Structure formats: structure tokens, C-alpha cells
């Protein structure tokens, strides 16, 4: 069903050749160093593609529980992927600045060293090797990889320390996929192209090294996957928290296999925050609409990172 719906919407994939009308990337300096500028525009919100525009009378597509691998869990099970109401609307986003890359572990380590804030750590056996930090020091050799094992609150604390904030979901959508009038299916254009993102596969174990990276990759390792505004790894590598939250109830979740929900440690109603852009643990090709993801705000996942944003300076 999902494939058919995507095919029906294929004609809405966006403009023609990738980068054909891409603006020059505008990089910040001084306190905006490491950020790129995104001019204001109208932007789509809500689930994309087939999920956003189902045939009349059709129930929202229920997404598969592919994120529920046991070693993913730190505070709950089967995070996210419940559907939201099908609301498709266009909103006006003001111009803003946003990090060119996901926040690196090197940058997060500097934050930890300066503030004494809690290091990335989860009480899970899988995390003991290569994932949990030694105080403010990330696993050796991963300094340029995106910080993960950070929940929504951690991400907000880091951005605030930098004098920034998380991007709102419409801001993220604009920065990675472009304005409503010329929205692309992928950050680089209308068509999927191998080698432009660090992706995984949908079947267990979800990792895939065919793109060169089994788990996280150094930020910016896929320059050909840049968005029109210069954002790197907008799709792939780490999922990215956004500021926008959603209330969701597990009672709304209608997975075909309800047994996956029986040992939930998450309350029946919880606060979720948007997480966008897929990760090394997911693949956009089966269903682009799965980009519209969300996780419980408390959850520290080995696939969840973030980048920060700032409003334009007042004139
Ligand atoms: Ca990969
Ligand atoms: Ca990413």
C-alpha cells in the first residue's frame, strides 16, 4: 500500500535537476561560525508524501515498528512512529541560521567540560563498548562524529549554552528540503542517489556498511548530500531533534503486531519531540514519510543527534 501511494505522489517530488536553482551557500562568521543562512519562505508542515496526502477516506498509513530493536532501548520501547493527524499546512518561516553539520562529539565535549553537564550514557549492555562516554571524553576516534545518546533536553541545554536553540520543525524542513513551492524529496534533489547519505536498511540488524559506514560517520562525510542551503547530513547519519513537540498516546498506535507494545515502560500518554532526517539505522527509500518521526523527549538513542539554530539578528 505504501509503495502504491508513493508512486501516486511521485509527480510531486519537486523541481528538476538537483541544484539547478540552488542559491550560493551563505556561511556565518564570528558567533555564527559553523552556521549557514536560510532565507525566510513558505514551508510545508506535517507528514510528507503519501502520509500527508492519502486518498480521500483512507486511514493514515500505520508505520512499521522498525525502530524497535532491543538494543536501541534506553528508557522505553518502540519509540515514535505513531501517526499524527493528517494535517498538511503551509506556514511562513522567517530567515534563520542553522548549523551546517550535526553537533559533533568534540563540540559536545567542550560543553561538558565547561559546564559539568551529564555525559552521554545509558544503562544498557550494548552501550558499554563504543557508545558511552568517559566523562567529557567520547569513545576514541569518534570526535568528529555526531553526538548521540542525547535526549531532547540535553540537546536544548547544549544549544542554549551556545546562545542558540533547536530549530523548529518547519525551520528544519525548510533548511533540508526547501520551500513549499520547490520542496524536494531528498536534500539534494528529487531522486534518491546512493552515496549521498549514511543510511541503514529496514530489516534487522538495520545497519548497512555499503555506504562505507556501519554506524555514525564523521559529520560532512557525504558532501554530495548537501541541501540547497548547504546543510550536510540532513538525511542520514543521526536523526535530528527539533524543538517542535507532539502529544501522542500509545492508544493511537495500531501496529499490526500489538504484542510489540505489551512491555512498554512509557506511560500511555507522553510528550514527543520531532526527530527528522533518518539515520544510519534507517532507509528512506521504502517510505519517505517516515522522515516525519518523533521520539519521547526523555529517550537517549544511539541514533539521535541534533543541530542548533539561531534567529536572524534584529535589524
Ligand atoms: Ca551506513
Ligand atoms: Ca542527520
According to CATH, the fold-level topology is paralog of FGE (formylglycine-generating enzyme)
Please mark out the parts with pLDDT under 50 across 5 or more consecutive residues, or reply none.
1-20, 49-55, 58-87, 249-268
Strands ordered across the widest β-sheet: 7-6-5-8
Characterize the largest beta sheet: strand count, sense, and whether it forms a barrel: 4 strands, mixed
Structural class: alpha+beta
What is the class in the CATH system? Alpha Beta
Number of helices: 5
Keywords:
315 residues; alpha+beta; paralog of FGE (formylglycine-generating enzyme); 5 helices; 13% helix; disordered N terminus; binds calcium ion
Please describe what this structure looks like.
This protein is of the alpha+beta class. Helices cover 13% and strands 15% of the residues. The chain has five helices and nine strands. Residues 1-20, 49-55, 58-87 and 249-268 have low confidence and may be disordered. Bound molecules: calcium ion (2 copies). One calcium ion binds at residues 102, 233-234, 236-238, 240, 277.
Write the layout of secondary structure elements.
Elements (H helix, E strand, L loop, with lengths): L1 H7 L26 E4 L2 E5 L3 H4 L36 E5 L2 E4 L5 H11 L36 H10 L7 H9 L61 E11 L19 E8 L16 E4 L7 E2 L3 E3 L4
Parallel strand pairs: 5-8
Antiparallel strand pairs: 1-4, 2-3, 4-9, 5-6, 6-7
Would you summarize the structure shown here?
The chain has 315 residues and is of the alpha+beta class.
Amino acid at each position: 500500500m505504501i509503495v502504491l501511494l508513493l508512486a501516486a505522489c511521485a509527480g510531486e517530488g519537486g523541481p528538476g535537476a538537483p541544484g539547478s536553482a540552488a542559491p550560493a551557500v551563505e556561511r556565518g562568521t564570528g558567533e555564527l561560525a559553523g552556521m549557514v543562512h536560510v532565507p525566510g519562505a513558505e514551508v510545508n508542515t506535517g507528514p510528507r508524501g503519501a502520509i500527508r496526502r492519502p486518498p480521500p477516506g483512507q486511514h493514515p498509513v500505520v508505520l512499521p515498528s522498525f525502530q524497535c530493536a532491543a538494543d536501541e532501548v534506553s528508557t522505553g520501547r518502540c519509540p515514535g512512529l505513531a501517526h499524527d493527524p493528517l494535517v498538511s499546512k503551509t506556514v511562513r518561516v522567517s530567515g534563520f541560521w542553522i548549523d551546517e553539520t550535526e553537533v559533533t562529539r568534540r563540540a559536545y565535549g567542550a560543553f561538558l567540560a565547561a559546564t559539568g553537564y551529564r555525559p552521554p550514557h545509558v544503562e544498557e549492555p550494548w552501550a558499554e563498548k563504543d557508545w558511552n562516554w568517559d566523562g567529557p571524553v567520547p569513545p576514541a576516534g569518534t570526535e568528529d562524529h555526531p553526538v548521540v545518546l542525547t535526549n531532547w533536553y540535553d540537546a536544548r541545554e547544549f544549544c542554549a549554552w551556545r546562545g542558540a536553540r533547536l530549530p523548529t520543525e518547519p525551520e528544519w524542513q525548510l533548511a533540508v528540503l526547501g520551500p513549499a513551492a520547490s520542496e524536494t524529496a531528498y536534500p539534494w534533489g528529487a531522486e534518491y542517489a546512493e552515496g549521498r547519505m549514511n543510511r541503514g536498511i529496514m530489516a534487522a540488524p538495520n545497519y548497512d556498511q555499503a555506504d562505507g559506514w556501519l554506524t555514525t560517520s564523521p559529520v560532512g562525510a557525504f558532501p554530495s548530500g548537501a541541501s540547497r542551503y548547504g546543510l550536510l547530513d540532513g538525511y542520514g547519519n543521526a536523526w535530528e531533534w527539533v524543538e517542535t513537540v507532539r502529544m501522542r498516546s500509545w492508544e493511537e498506535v495500531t501496529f499490526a503486531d500489538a504484542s510489540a507494545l505489551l512491555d512498554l515502560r512509557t506511560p500511555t500518554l507522553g510528550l514527543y519531540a520531532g526527530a527528522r532526517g533518518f539515520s544510519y539505522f534507517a532507509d528512506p527509500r521504502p517510505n519517505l514519510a517516515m522522515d516525519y518521526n518523533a521520539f519521547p523527549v526523555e529517550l537517549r538513542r544511539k541514533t539521535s543527534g541534533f543541530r542548533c539554530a539561531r534567529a536572524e539578528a534584529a535589524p
